[in-house]
Design a protein that fits this description.
By secondary structure, this protein is of the alpha+beta class. The protein has 2 helices and 6 strands, in the order αββββαββ. Strands 1, 2, 3, 4, 5 and 6 form a 6-stranded mixed beta sheet that branches. A hairpin with a 3-residue loop joins strand 5 and strand 6. 32% of the residues are buried.
């Protein structure tokens, strides 16, 4: 019996996103960014700018008898696109395309029926919140902080 589904769920989310066709030209990163941000498109799992936690966790007893626990958690994520030009509309559209690819990767399909369960590590997972930031400084940067919310039985 595990004390939390979080480690396996984060690993499964990374695996699903790294295999997603819609994210083929993006770098999917486990945790915070390094100092060398030379790529133009990123998806960070377990990190958001200014976030206090990589994953927020809440547990409670699943039923009488205290044999099982229900766990709800929110994985902080962040998508970012950058360019040397000044066209913010292009970067804004591009960052929403990245997050759409994340959302598509979390939906069940004939090819990936277990995607919403992160490979069976959780009961369900889905994208729940987002917050757009835009910066113009030596080019344009559009970032979209988002949350993947999960529910598990441990």
């Amino acid at each position: 019996m595990s004390t939390s589904a979080v480690p396996a769920a984060v690993d499964a989310l990374l695996e699903i996103l790294r295999a997603a066709p819609g994210l083929a030209d993006a770098r999917v990163v486990d945790g915070p960014p390094s100092t060398n941000l030379t790529d133009r498109k990123y998806v960070f799992v377990g990190w958001q700018p200014g976030a206090e936690a990589a994953v927020a966790i809440e547990q409670d007893f699943a039923s009488a008898g205290a044999r099982r626990r229900d766990e709800s958690f929110e994985i902080s994520c962040y998508a970012e696109t950058r360019s040397g030009d000044k066209d913010m509309a292009v970067q804004r559209a591009a960052v929403f395309e990245l997050v759409a690819a994340v959302e598509d990767a979390l939906r069940a399909t004939d090819a990936a029926p277990a995607a919403p369960t992160l490979g069976g590590t959780v009961l369900w997972a889905h994208l729940t919140t987002g917050s757009l930031t835009q910066v113009q400084s030596e080019g344009t940067v559009a970032g979209l902080a988002f949350t993947v919310t999960c529910r598990a039985r441990i």
